[in-house]
Amino acid sequence: xxxxxxxxxxxxxxxxxxxVSSLSDESDEKAYWFSKxxxxxxxxxxxxxxxxxxxxxxxARLQRILExxxxxxxxxx
Length: 77
Prior knowledge:
This protein has a domain at 1-15 and 28-59. 29% of the residues lie in helices and 0% in strands. The chain is built from two helices and no strands. The chain has helices at 29-34, 38-53.
């Protein structure tokens, strides 16, 4: 089955899938992520970051800011 991918290359979220559970219920998430390689975990983390904060390749670099100020001359009184 092929995943739906939007224009930015991020897979679409299936908003029809929904489950409710108690916070005290045991979860198999920890075992799932420990079964993945560190590289797979980093890829998943990057995908979540892009989903949450967006990804724009034109602004992917850090912005450089240069500020020039003049030194105030302080006279001796």
